[in-house]
Amino acid sequence: MNLQEVDVLYDPAELRDKIKELGKKITEDYSGKQLIVIGILKGAFIFMADLVREIDLPVELDFMDVSSYGASTMSSGEVKIIKDLDNSIQDKHVLIVEDIVDTGLTLKYIVAILKKRGPRSVKICCLLDKPSRRKADIRPDYYGYSIEDNFVVGCGLDYNEKYRNYPAVCILKPSVYRKQG
Ligand code: IMP
Ligand code: MG
After folding, report:
1. What is the rounded distance in angstroms from the CA atom of residue 146 to the CA atom of residue 150?
2. DSSP 8-state symbol, 173
3. Distance 102 CA to ligand 2 centre (A)
4. Cβ distance 128 to 97 under 8 Å?
5. pLDDT tens-digit profile of 127-138?
6. Is 127 in the pocket of ligand 1 (CB under 6 A)?
7. Which of 1, 58, 144, 171 has the greatest number of CB atoms lying within 10 Å of its CB?
């Protein structure tokens, strides 16, 4: 990690403990239920890999990739599906896994799409929650940490596709995005 560019917010050991806790809670809550965990690409992939290994249930895994329709319509939160699920979610309990909930607009749209497909339930689990920036009425059912309005990277989160592989959740120093535009 380049510590001239980032400040560590949560280190790998803290993250491991937190994700263990989340997995334990989810294991209890979904015991005896048919659970499908859906990761939103790409940001969720590292958190999801850690999380599902802490869920002691027979889970099904799937992924979805979405992109917003472009800067001008971003506030509408309307997204286009780049990669849809491989399998049906009919009659299953869906747990959507996201890296971070910011405005909540992306998840509001994804939840609406998935609810039309006949699942038994749809819940959200994110590693980070940034409630101060919320525009949509979306509240994660499970989250690791609630954070201030800082731009964070690492553990799947990127800035211009960089830093996803950093093992800690880090605050990106403003000097970096000032420099890169
Ligand atoms: P929103 O909740 O629809 O505003 O968008 C959430 C998405 O924006 C996340 O899945 C991330 O890809 C991205 N995002 C929001 N805040 C951050 C951040 O602090 N760092 C990196 N990506 C972020
Ligand atoms: Mg994302």
Report:
1. 11
2. P
3. 10
4. no
5. 999 999 999 999
6. no
7. 144
